[in-house]
Design goal:
This protein is an alpha/beta fold and about 500 residues long. Helix content is about 35%, strand content about 15%. The protein is built from 17 helices and eleven strands. The strands form two sheets. The chain has a nine-stranded mixed β-sheet, sandwiched between helices. A two-stranded antiparallel ribbon has the order 8-9. Helix 4 packs across helix 5 and helix 13 packs across helix 14. It is globular, with a radius of gyration of 22 Å.
């Protein structure tokens, strides 16, 4: 699977933490984590790889606690559930804590590396710097553009992971589902002695939060779901539908903006011409290494670059210019935008865990999915996932996983109107299922991930800190409606006034 096709499933990932070795199931002890100024607490709980074999192979699930600042803290900590699937929550601590500062005044903030990520029996597929084409851990553009090479690497990764302790056979890759991971999370809750917790889930983390709520409703106080990815979403199929909608909205926004229309008067025609001319041989500087590379640019690679760019409106503002240039044979802008988020370490995904989740929970439902394919995006990404998942061991997923019972505790759902992967239609469906305790809020001009936009972090703090459920659900969210869409980037022309 090409990294460009999966780029930016959630935000930026900072450098991993420096965690000391600890005995499993001991109380968390002081440690330092990259990106955090103050000392925090690190711990781990030992969990059976397969709950049906409690005496069988074990894994250590690592977590970090950022203690509350106040001496008299509140008893319900806030747990962050990361995205992907495949992202390390602990690696997000440095970038997320500025959003949680006010919550941290009286509540502990907890980051748990879900099984298969970070230091919790990671299923990482990176080949490492020594095997990378440029010696720096980066794939060549030719590698990214060639599905056959990617499939071969995924197959090799699958075989390596299946032989790595504590795994003893390929079937053991099936023990990394969301259901089992949320049982691990509850074990961390128990270890910390919290009767109830608050959850903040982002992207795939919202699916994890919904599964925790399904299994342990009595242990939950409040939930915030940012970029809702429900269990019945069928990710590889909805990618196409939602990506097409976001791209069509970008084209329409350019046509409604005078400066963009003047700069790109034939943007739709340029786009069609670009797609019609693929595949083609191109020479482009690799945006991560700077080296000029010659390779075959495919339709799938272009669609992947466009899809990844749409995650962040401030990056997508440069897409009209990049598409016009690409239609005229200049591909540096488009390839550069496609690699921008991964250059910020926005990938950071344990791809083995990613496929263990998607192949178990989404792939079996692809044939029955009803979402219409996007006119341009088609079913190419679904086909790629189907090919990988055909040989990837699948874990057991209970039928109840796909059903959302009515919530007995408040749930705040946040969606970006420009989101190409978890747009508001998914949150609307979840809110209806959860019932009267759910509140769905749409930020019209936000992309994938809302908690860092405008007043969103203050609303999240007030939602969780509200003393009563009714007050939490009655928040005034009008401050998010006024967030503007970034205008299209228009390059200065020679001689133009500055």
């Amino acid at each position: 699977m090409t990294r460009s096709l999966l780029a930016a499933l959630l935000g930026a990932v900072l450098a991993g933490p420096v965690l000391p070795a600890r005995a499993a199931n001991e109380a968390p002890t002081p440690c330092r984590v990259a990106g955090l100024r103050n000392e925090v607490l690190c711990g781990q709980v030992r969990r059976p790889l397969d709950p049906a074999r409690p005496a069988g192979p074990q894994i250590d699930v690592h977590y970090v606690v950022v203690p509350a600042m106040a001496r008299r803290k509140l008893p319900d900590p806030v747990f962050l559930l990361a995205g992907g699937p495949g992202q390390s929550a602990i690696s997000l601590a440095g970038s997320v804590m500025p959003l949680f500062q006010r919550l941290n005044n009286r509540r502990d903030i907890v980051f748990v590396d879900q099984r298969g990520t970070g230091r919790s029996a990671p299923l990482a597929c990176d080949d490492g710097p020594a095997n990378a084409p440029d010696g720096g851990g980066r794939e060549s553009l030719a590698d990214e553009a060639d599905p056959a090479r990617q499939f071969a690497r995924m197959a090799a990764c699958r075989d390596r992971l299946a032989a790595r302790a504590p795994l003893a056979a390929p079937a053991d890759l099936g023990f990394f589902t969301t259901t089992l991971a949320m049982q691990d999370l509850d074990a961390v809750r128990t270890r910390l002695g919290a009767a109830r917790i608050d959850l903040v889930g982002a992207s795939y983390g919202t699916r994890a939060a919904l599964e925790y709520q399904r299994q342990f409703p009595e242990r939950l106080r409040r939930s915030v779901l940012d970029g809702v990815a429900p269990p019945d979403m069928v990710l590889p199929v909805s990618f196409s539908t939602d990506g097409q909608q976001a791209f069509d909205a970008l084209l329409a926004a350019c046509e409604a903006e005078a400066a963009c229309t003047r700069a790109h008067p034939a943007l739709r025609a340029d786009w069609k011409a670009l797609l019609a001319g693929l595949p083609r041989e191109v020479s482009v500087a690799n945006p991560l290494s700077g080296r000029i590379e010659r390779f075959t640019l495919t339709r799938e690679m272009v669609l992947g670059a466009v899809r990844g760019t749409l995650y962040a409106p401030w990056i997508a503002a440069a897409l009209p210019s990049a598409l016009q240039d690409a239609a005229q044979g200049r591909f540096e802008g488009l390839i550069g935008l496609g690699g921008l988020l991964s250059a910020r370490k926005g990938m950071g995904l344990a791809m083995g865990m990613h496929f263990s989740v998607v192949c178990a929970e989404d792939a079996p439902r692809m044939a029955q999915a009803t979402d219409p394919p996007g006119a341009d995006f088609g079913r190419s990404l679904g086909t790629l996932y189907a090919r990988v998942c055909a040989d990837w061991p699948r874990g057991a997923v209970p039928d109840a996983f796909y059903r959302l019972p009515a919530s007995t505790t408040p749930v705040l759902l946040l969606s970006g109107g420009l989101d190409p992967i978890t747009p508001p239609r998914h949150a609307d469906r979840v809110a209806r299922a959860l019932g009267a305790q759910a509140r769905s809020v749409v930020v019209p001009n936000a992309g994938h991930g809302v908690m860092g936009v405008g007043c969103a972090r203050d609303l999240i703090q007030r939602f969780i800190d509200a003393a009563y459920d009714a007050a939490a659900l009655a928040l005034d969210t009008t401050c998010l409606v006024a967030v503007p869409r970034p205008p299209a980037f228009v390059p200065l022309q020679p001689g133009a006034p500055r």
